[in-house]
Amino acid sequence: MRSHPRPLERVPERVLWPPAGYGDGVSSPSAESAAPDPADPAEPGAPSQPDYSGPVCSGPVAAPRGGLAAALGESDGLGRLSTARLAALLSEGIHQAALGGIVLFSPEAATTPAAIAGGFAVMLLPYSIVGPFAAAALDRWDRRVVVAVAALVRTLAIVATIALIAVGAVHTGAGLAVLFGLSLVAIGLGRLINTGMTAAMPKVVPDRILAATNSVLVTVGSVITAVGAVAAFAVLAVLGAGDAAVSWTLVPSVVAALVGVWAVLALPRRHLGPDDDELSRHARSAVTRDAWRTFAGGLAEGLRAARSTALVWVSLAGVTLGRAAFGITTMLAILLLRDVESGDAGGPVIAGMGGFGLMSAAVAAGMGVAAVVAPWAMARARRILVVAAGAGLSALAQAVVGPTLDPLALVVGAVALGLGAQVVKLVADNAMQTDVPDTRRGGVFALQDALFNSAFVVGMVAVLPLVPADGRSVSLMLVPAALYALSAVIAVVTAVGTASRSRAESERSGGQRTAAD
Prior knowledge:
Layout: H1 29-34, H2 68-72, H3 78-103, H4 113-134, H5 143-166, H6 173-199, H7 201-204, H8 210-239, H9 243-265, H10 276-279, H11 284-296, H12 298-306, H13 310-343, H14 352-378, H15 383-401, H16 407-435, H17 438-463, H18 474-508
Helix pairs in contact: 3-6, 3-8, 3-9, 4-6, 4-17, 5-6, 5-9, 6-17, 8-9, 8-14, 8-16, 12-17, 13-14, 13-15, 13-16, 13-17, 13-18, 14-16, 15-16, 15-18
């Protein structure tokens, strides 16, 4: 077996962010479970375990010196992993846009608030339920194999979708049910693929550039997904959402998916983790038995890992509330854009499918800015305050542009919404990658994916009885602003509490101050 660098092993001079337990001055469950047993001394020559008990630092940690490009040269497999990840996300963007075109914006489709919520529920909620259990395999089995198999099955589901649409079968009740079933498979496996590759990042990227690299790749991935979606929306806006147009629009999704499969299979065995020495503590039969046990307790395992630090659960709360808010805004925007299109009052672009594509592009632009802003902010301030700032920006933007009910204003505000939401998401990813042990990281990322998807639908369903058919409701446009503001308040209150505990710890320890995230 080919050996490869083990960038997950942390040494003090390369730690970019404080490990688990530093933020609140209390040893975290993750840190305790990862630490070696003092009564069981390590064998001579055995690799050292990460040291979670080293001296704590005060305030934000400075970004490392040196060029990012030179530091990336230290990684092994980042290029292939990035290729696989971006190809899968491009395929996902095209696929979801094509489905949206035929379900939400087709002239034959009667798009009601219930239909919008139902469509998103069918496509997203099943993975939110199954994901935490199935993705537990990422912590027990070779992530490369899990991701490759999932990508192959997903590709076959998209090919079947093309065939179904091409023959015009989606206009019957049975055909539409089959379409939704194939969508469940493709979208659910797409989330599993993204979870696996995100959890594998610390295996191919040195710790000292993990935050910056992850910010770039996560945001570029979001932009790539949006580019695929916007391109598909643009094609369908010109050609119409007919069966032939949608079928041909899905062909590039298959090509991109196959590129992702090739890139994953080009990596060596176990290159994406978990490491062999992490699994060697269990007998081979016990690994399989524990994997099935973990399936049954996947959600609980993710919740336990999420409680490892205050930053992890606060950032997850921010992601969850933000997605619920964005679900409400998305429903109202779809209805509003369809109403503007039918009334021919909003111009040829900011209406209908073209307007929704433009709004998606605006969100992607904000995410692109977040790739620069988030690492800069995390290097200069406590990460929990960066969460508060991102959520606060989203609340302000929603409160200013939402009540206008103007498509152009919503497009402009979407840039700020994308920026604020992505900053919160990047902090959450960074906290889970640096503060959660590798053997539990797949579970907590799967939990985030489940919350990410389910909160979007729950937000829609919660306001469903109040949504007008044309989407014109000033009061409902303010509900997302309140959810964003609640996320910011939670982050600020938690930051004040951890700072107070830090000062108390400092006084008891004779002046050594514990950093809080």
